[in-house]
Amino acid sequence: MNDERLTVAHTPDGTDGPRPAGYRPEPPGPPDQSDRPEQPEQPRRRKRRGPGPFTLLLLPGLLTVTGVAAFLALGGLPDPWPDDSDSNTSAGADIDPSYVPWLRKAASACTVLEPSVLAAQIDQLSGWVDDSDELSGQKGIAAFTDSEWRTWGKDDDGNGKSSPRDPADAIMALGRRDCSLAKKVTELRTEGRVSGDLVELTLAAYAAGPDAVTEVGRVPAGAKTYLDEVQALLPRYEALDREDSGGGAGGPAGALLTAPVSPLTITSPFGSREHPLTGVTKLHTGVDFAAPQGAQVVAARRGRVVFAALTSAYGNRIVIDHGTIQGKRVETTYSHLSLLGVAVGQTVEAGTPIGRVGSTGLSTGPHLHFEVILDGYYTDPRPWLAT
Question: pLDDT of 366-383, one tens digit each?
Answer without folding.
Answer: 999 999 988 888 888 988
